[in-house]
Amino acid sequence: MPTFPVIQHDDASADRPPFERIAIVGLGLMGGSLALAIRRRWRGGLIIGVDRKDALEAGMRMHAVDVGADDLGMAAEADLIVLAAPVRQNIAVLKRLPEFVAGRVLVTDIGSTKREILREARTLPDRLTFVGGHPLAGAAATGISWAVPHLFDTRPWLLATPAPEEALSRLEALVRGVGSIPVRMDADRHDTLLAFLSHLPQLTASALMHVVGERAGAEGLTLAGRGLRDTTRLALSSPEIWRDITATNAADIEEALDLLIAALEQLRADLRSGDDLLRIFESAARWKRLLEGSAGEPGI
Length: 300
Hints:
Elements: E1 21-25, H1 29-41, E2 46-50, H2 53-61, E3 67-69, E4 80-83, H3 87-100, E5 105-109, H4 115-121, E6 128-131, E7 133-135, E8 156-161, H5 165-177, E9 181-186, H6 187-221, H7 226-231, H8 239-247, H9 250-269, H10 275-294
């Protein structure tokens, strides 16, 4: 059985979560893992789930949530509402929140793009304070059955700025409590950077697996080695989730794809002489050594 890092906490605050009532809208891999991580860290507090009946039942069996329902009314009394569905679903829920939440509440999300949801958040009434969030953690698998309490351990958790200082500080306390490292980042910078760090690798892996599979076929794939398997790990990711991500960060992803296509065209034009190939391979090796020396397990 694999072992995971143990997050040490100070006993004096073990029963005092930064939010007493947390509603998580969307109990998939990420939302379910967040619920489990909160439960691991704090013995007190109430975790409210909002999702379909089957996800709620699974969450209760796993002791991830205390109560739940399939309508947003359940989130009305929460101190913190976390939007943990795919990106465009989060935006749709954000639009509807004022109908269900009459009091003051802090709202955040854990989606992979920030510009579009922050644009929508500007239309919220003053009683609803929104801070965009994005934990750089995940897996190719989806659904609450894959949720684990250690998913966020030692991983960066980006919090979009500008945002009110008090709200940021309270969220940072939650983020540290579940084992993550809070990082404040401008929303525009976030979407541009993630287009290269996450969105481009996903599209590249999926396109590569598509091309290889279509050309090699089932019989040919039996000869594949570790290189293809390692390079295409992300090809199992949910297309529904990624359709939302690409739709809400299209301009930055287009730029990233243009640069990758240009590099591939250089390699194609240089196959016989190998001058550009040497330069690109040497650059890739240099950056890869830096990557391996500066990070642990990569996020999604």
